[in-house]
Amino acid sequence: MPLTLYFHPLSSFCHKVLIALYEQGVAFEKRIIDLANDADRAELQSLWPLGKFPVIRDHARQRDVPESSVIIEYLERFYGGAPPLIPQDWDSALEVRLWDRFFDNYVQGPMQQIVADRLYGTNGDLSQQRSNLLTAYAMLERRMASRIWAASPDFSLADCAAAPALFYARTLVAFPEDHRHLSAYFERLVQRPSFRRVIDEARPYFVYYPFAEAIEQRFR
Fold this sequence. Notes:
Elements: E1 3-7, H1 12-23, E2 29-32, H2 38-47, E3 55-58, E4 63-66, H3 68-78, H4 90-120, H5 127-143, H6 157-169, H7 180-191, H8 193-202
Parallel strand pairs: 1-2
Antiparallel strand pairs: 1-3, 3-4
Helix pairs in contact: 1-3, 1-6, 1-8, 4-5, 4-6, 5-7
């Protein structure tokens, strides 16, 4: 197998890469990393000393690639199929990259802070993080009023980022009832075969998610 993905089935950033791999039918091997296991953590740090997943190892090119967006760009360059997840047109590609960063920084970012607070029992003031999620939701509600996908006429890198970000974020801060365009976009994402496969594979691990009780029954 030319590629090995070092990941964890609960990780939203790993989900993002898995969606891209499944979208384009790229063959790869999975290596689950348990950061609580010293040997696993050391193995991951040998590839990426910061010890964060996902990381993908390209055995043919003898290269280790970290960071979800960079991994997807790398896959697109060397292993990508059709249609592309990043448009060839520069302006369109810039829009896709912008919304990829939006989902990573302004949905995943506050979401992960809230999850970490419960995981480590720090009991911090998370009102700003929850407010940031509501702001992001409002921006998406306006944007998705006239769109099918987040940044391109076709499913793209931005949607790979959106799916896991919104999946977990809505377990922390529900979509407002009047955000029907955002809700419709989320339903399109969860019906996408690539993301449905990711959810199916993650299902046995959801019990370990700190907000497992907030995951909808249909996904358990």
